[in-house]
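Run log, item B.
One chain of 117 residues. Sequence copied directly from the ordering sheet:
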Amino acid sequence: RNVMRALGMLPGDPAILRPVWWEGAKRVQLAAEAQGHIRFYVGWYEPVAADQLICKIFDVPTSGKLQEVRAPFAGVVGGLDFRPIARPGETLCWVNDAMRVDIENPTPPSDDWSAKH
């Protein structure tokens, strides 16, 4: 329907369902330190605050918590692991420093922001 609205075939404006992000240069991969069942508390491309809980790894037989994974800085989460079991050293997800873009006024970030990120 969005394509048809954008082409003028249906009334109304197309809806932008997902935000647009400028990505900074800082990206950190977060890895498992333990083997167990992964429970994510955030979704793909969801913004997170610094130190926000991203996921926990639980022991399969006992359901005891083995590891908490938190965002090292404010940013956007991506690359969530789709497998239910984590193994030590495997990447669980990444956090990318990013800035949300106002789609109505898509100006690039200032040089000052780009230099810091």
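Observations after the first pass:
- Helices lie at 2-6, 111-116.
- The chain has a mean pLDDT of 84.
Flagged for discussion on Thursday.
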